[in-house]
Amino acid sequence: MAARTSKIEFAPIQPRLLAVKAAAAYMGCTVWAARKLAWERELPFCKIGGRLLFDRADLDRYIDMQKTAAAL
Predict the structure, then answer these.
(1) Of 23, 45, 52, 56, which sits with the fewest C-beta atoms within 10 Å of its C-beta?
(2) Whole-number Å distance between alpha carbons of 60 and 56
(3) Are the C-beta atoms of 52 and 38 separated by less than 8 Å?
(4) Range of 56's domain?
């Protein structure tokens, strides 16, 4: 009798914190623009060790705040 095996597939884990390069790509800007936003305290960041990391939720919130309403 063959043993039953069930294959469980898991969704890939999306990291909550993004490094500067990934955060810049996520926002569609340059690495230096993302760094400047952090240095000027316009965009919240975490510093773990020497790494500058950005929370996806903060990036989404920042992008939403930068939107301008369309003139209808």
Answers:
(1) 56
(2) 6
(3) yes
(4) 17-65
Q: Residue 10 is which amino acid?
A: F
Specify burial of residue 31 (Cβ count, 10 A radius: 0-12, 13-18, 19+).
middle
Residue 48 pairs in a beta bridge with 51
Instruction: For residue 27, give both structure tokens.
Output: 């926002």
Is residue 52 assigned to a domain?
Answer: yes
Pairing of strands 17-19, 46-48: unpaired
Read off the pLDDT of residues 3-56 as tens digits, 9 standing for 90 and up. 677 788 888 888 999 999 999 999 999 999 999 999 999 999 999 999 999 999
Contact status, residue 34 vs residue 27, Cβ threshold 8 Å: yes
pTM, entire model: 0.77
